[in-house]
Batch of 4 targets.
Target 1
Amino acid sequence: MRYLGLDLGSRTLGIAVSDPTGLIASSYGVIRHQEEYPELVEKVKQLVEELHIDQIVLGFPKNMNNTIGPKGELSIQFQKMLLDAVSIPVVLEDERLTTKLANDVLIQADVSRKGRKGVVDEVAASLILQAYLDRREKE
């Protein structure tokens, strides 16, 4: 089974994909957007078809107290839009602290501040997807 991991930001969509066995997540890229969500959904739909994706894992930004704020609500709406556009499952995965962890990983790899800005969302997407894959493997 092949998975697509997504990290929806206000101006970017970080993308990660799993290997065909569904065990390892890898960064795939970033789609820049201006909050044109229907167009963004179409781009994701194209990726699903091109990469033969079986399931989408969408980051779900909950607040630290486990409540759902405006960004979490946006992810729920984006999930609904994706479900209407593709014929595969779209699951939400808690993404608390993944952007900070992604930045920490990039800092440890000695990536410049400017370089981090360009890849942090795709690294966060791969962390979200890997967390989902690891949990699924344990179950």
Target 2
Amino acid sequence: MAEESSFVELIGRVRSGDEAAARELVKRYEPYIRRVVRAKLTDRRLRRQMDSVDICQSVLGNFFVRVALGQFDLSCPEQLVKLLATIARNRVVEEARKQHAAVRDIRRLDTGGLSDSRIDGGQDTPSQLVVARELLQKFRERLTEEEKRIADARAREQGWAEIGVQMGMTPDALRMRWTRTVDRLAHELGLVNTHG
């Protein structure tokens, strides 16, 4: 129970923009995301075109923006692991589709005798905080006034039922509307359209 309480506190701090909490979350979960990405990158030609670090940054950027906007209700680490794995797998699939498009079809690339080695480096990734902050700012700029009220209420950790009462909507209708709003903006900004 203490672990779940600590986890909920960490997510609340991340949602409120606490940089130390965001760093802690990255430290805890980035290795897991990279393992998921590597496991999904089974085609050696695809591995040469995509880097697990880049995909991991994209996954974390997507997550940080969406959690700051209050889209996710996470109460335990297992939920976060499942969500991050889903976002990561979907991101790899999306990137693979792009690479297999007619213009960039990686199957047409000559391997040129290169070995199947991967250059991952194992080095620390650049901070996702700056990217997430910029994305969040772009999201907020695109929100209507009513949508900003929803975002602000979620940032204050208000539940869907409470916000629904304030806005005259059922919690389910409000949550669905917010999910569509976040998905629309994520699409506009070129993020993966995944909401777990």
Target 3
Amino acid sequence: MNWLQFFVSDTLNLLWLALGLFLAGVIETFLWKTSFFQVLNIPIQTEWFGANKKWRGLVSLPLAMLASVYLLHLAEIFISAFPQDAILFSNFNLLQFGLLVGFVFNLSELPNSFVKRRLAIPPGDESSKIFYFVDHMDSTYGVLILWYFYFHFPLHFIITGLIVTPLLFMGATELRKKLGLK
């Protein structure tokens, strides 16, 4: 397989795996409206990370990702059109994969938030294109590190992910905004 075939195959796999995180983000918005998650709607540490990084996110996204992974695993059972080199949720322990990816995704945002608070950049500020990109890179790169070292995804997949995942999540963020989910 040449580099272009790897890139296309890896991008398709990234789209499938990213669908899990996108679906988890949708599920998470509904979880936040429950009384349990209202109790967790408090900042982790305002001085370090700002008021927007809350305990509910560290708890809700892993649970939402777990639900998403199980739903997509069911879809995999009924869809027989996956290519032979597809990375499927059914290849993993669903409990581990869902909880770890959801937790690492949100945990990976904290260093970026810490730096932005030191630079006096307000939370959610999208005026700087550099920080807008970094805001979509931090979580995805954290997950790529998890996938490489813990789940042993191939290096070519991770390299493709370094390019493709920030773009996917910028698109997903814009879609969630248009749908009123963010």
Target 4
Amino acid sequence: MSLMPNKPAPALELSLAGGGRFSLAAEKPQHFTMVVFYRGLHCPICRRYLSELESLLPEFEKRGVSVFAASSDPQDRAEQAKSGWGLANLRVGYDLSIEEARKWGLYVSRSKGPTSAGVVEPDLFNEPGLFIVRPDRTLYWGTTSTMPFGRPHFNEVLQSLDFVIPKNYPARGDA
């Protein structure tokens, strides 16, 4: 089964760095939940990406969008990312299984050893993806990448939300 707009998004329940749990089913945003899958502690691009997201959380909140980030990293690496990357307010989930990652349509990579950040990649890990899910848990918007590069810019996502929310713009790509 492939992930399709206007169809149910896969279930997602993960523990959070710093304590607590995230459950997509329990989210009650005004408009959307944005799920950002990042590669893990080893990825310097993820560090910049999630740091930018942290700074823009109030803008997403103003638009009625709840935000969550997750990776296949184990708890210790997720805790290091949350504290070391200054993600005080971003909810960061961990232990995304490779099976769950594939249900979301994420690409999976094998370790190539240490990265430019000097952190060894896990044996298997998810590549990036960004998904916007309606309160009824149907997929509205999704994008994935096979590489750490070429991710949606959060300011462009915000501009897009400013267009689609007031116009009740339909999801696309469901034909």
